[in-house]
Amino acid sequence: MVDYERNFFLPYKGWKKPIYAIPGNHDWFDALEGFNANFLEPKAARAALQSRVSTDLHLTSTNARRIETLLKQAKELRRNYEIDVAHQHGPYFEIQTADFALLAIDTGIQRTLDNRQQQWLDDALIRSKGKFTMAILGHPKYAGGVDTTISDPHFGALYQKLEAAGVRVLMAGDTHAFEHYLPTATGTGSPAHHFVNGGGGAYLSIGGALAWPKIPATPTWGFYPPPGAVRSKLDAETPAWKQPVWQWVKRFGAWPVSTETLSAMFDFNRAPFFQSFVEVRVERSRNRVVLAVHGANGPLRWRDMHLSDTVPASPEDPVEYVLTMGEPKK
Fold first, then answer.
1. CA–CA distance, 96 with 185 (Å, rounded to integer)
2. 315 in the Ramachandran plot: left (φ > 0), alpha (ψ -120 to 50) or beta?
3. Is 208:271 a contact under the CB 8 Å cutoff?
4. CA-based nearest residue to 259, from 206, 306, 213, 222
5. How many Å apart are CA 311 and CA 290, to the nearest integer?
6. How far apart are CA 210 and CA 221, in angstroms?
7. Going along 36-141, which residue ranges are E strands?
8. Residues spanned by the domain of 21
9. pLDDT tens, residue by residue, 14-65
10. Which of 52, 81, 110 delimits the end of a domain?
11. Burial of 202 (0-12, 13-18, 19+ CB in 10 A)
12. Which of 122, 147, 178, 225 has CB atoms 3.0–4.6 Å from 276's, for a disulfide?
């Protein structure tokens, strides 16, 4: 609970539009207590907190008094920072319009859905049929250039379900960087665009940039920050006592562990910054959805990216992925 003021309320101070959220794996470390208190509508938050205690047979330090304290703290944070939050009824939800559907899916820590969320998702996909559908999940299918579902068939089945239903955009966090993947088209449908949108704040994931596979999981891909930028930052900022580890990473790829495993060792909160986020614009008047990538200094340019193909536009143009919504509804 104590992390939310510094990591959520303070960064969003001044933002006036409603905020909805799904948990990341770290939000589950306290059994989702802080997340529920802050993001759920108060009545739903109280019910969720009480239900968790009951499910755990009261083998927890959380009791009725603590629950009320959590709810009071969350209310005070919302008031003090004037953040418009606590409208959702659970850690997963959907937003449906006549031609666009947004499905927000909670994959927890173990990349799984319980039976209740699975039933909701099945029903939500039916309600989304014929619409431009975008799904946001806690964990990505592709990260660091590899398919993360190969060793996890249950997680793979979730993505297969979404892709089979015609979901056009699949976006997740977890990995602390921006990545884009476009698989090879199969059948008659267009392949889904996969995005890793996890570069908003925590330490930079360096595994993708410094250990990108020779044969990535998809033929079309791109990521930010590029390898040269990451190496330059770590060369300049790694202190002497960490230099042996950095030299080992550069020379041996962090063997016997992965480069990504050691990312947290190089958490230097100094410029240049490589934080990023994706803005999604549903432009009905132009029958399209635009995914625009922003960095610490404004819109990213194609020259900032590391790409599989040639730059799709001028190197100075902003990074935007433009998808057609489909035939306009009459």
1. 27
2. alpha
3. no
4. 206
5. 17
6. 15
7. 93-96, 100-105, 132-137
8. 3-81
9. 999 999 999 999 999 999 999 999 999 999 999 999 999 999 999 999 999 9
10. 81
11. middle
12. 178
